[in-house]
Design a protein that fits this description.
four-stranded mixed sheet; 21% strand; Glutaredoxin; alpha+beta; 3 helices; globular
C-alpha cells in the first residue's frame, strides 16, 4: 500500500489530515509510505481536487477518501484497501 495525500500549502485542513493519517498509520504499526502532493499550480490536479482537498488516495487501487473524515472513517478506508 502506498498513499497519496493531495492538498495545498497553508491549508489547515490538509495539515490536520496529514497528522491524522500519520497517527492512524502508526497505530496500525504499519509501514505505509505517504506521499504529499501540493495541487497548487497543477491545473489538472486543481480541477480534479480543488474543492475536495484534502484527499487520501491509494496509489494501487485509485480508491479515494475526501475530506471530511475522522479517525474511524480513515480506519475503515484503510481496512478496505487491505
Amino acid at each position: 500500500m502506498r498513499l497519496i495525500l493531495y492538498g495545498t500549502s497553508g491549508c489547515h485542513l490538509c495539515e490536520d489530515a496529514e497528522i491524522l493519517l500519520s497517527k492512524v498509520i502508526r497505530a496500525r504499526a504499519a509501514k505505509v509510505p505517504i506521499e504529499t502532493v501540493d495541487i497548487a499550480g497543477q491545473s489538472e490536479l486543481e480541477e480534479r481536487y480543488g474543492v475536495r482537498i484534502p484527499v487520501v488516495r491509494d496509489a494501487a487501487s485509485s480508491a479515494e477518501l475526501d475530506w471530511p473524515f475522522d479517525e474511524e472513517r480513515l480506519l475503515e478506508f484503510l481496512q478496505g484497501l487491505s
